[in-house]
Design a protein that fits this description.
Length: 81
């Protein structure tokens, strides 16, 4: 089984929360358009000034998606179980 990679976009400032939530909508559209293997997205709010949106991809898809969407960072995804 391939590892899963969490691609992350950081948003900062007073509009960070709204921007992260809106960005997730575009990530979902991208999943459908590109017919990606996984359908895992989300957003998290760390403070009033820092939020993130994320997309989880399989390791073989990571480089292609990374080059198109240009996330700020990535990490190995461990599914919450």
């Amino acid at each position: 089984m391939d590892r899963k990679i969490k691609l992350i976009w950081d948003f900062r400032g007073t509009a960070a929360a709204n921007t992260a939530e809106h960005h997730e909508k575009h990530l979902k559209e991208f999943i459908k358009k590109e017919e990606l293997e996984l359908d895992i997205t989300g957003f998290e709010h760390f403070s009033e000034m820092h939020s993130v949106a994320y997309l989880v991809v399989s390791e073989p898809e990571m480089k292609t998606v990374r080059d198109v969407l240009r996330p700020h960072r990535g990490e190995i995804y461990l599914s919450p179980e």
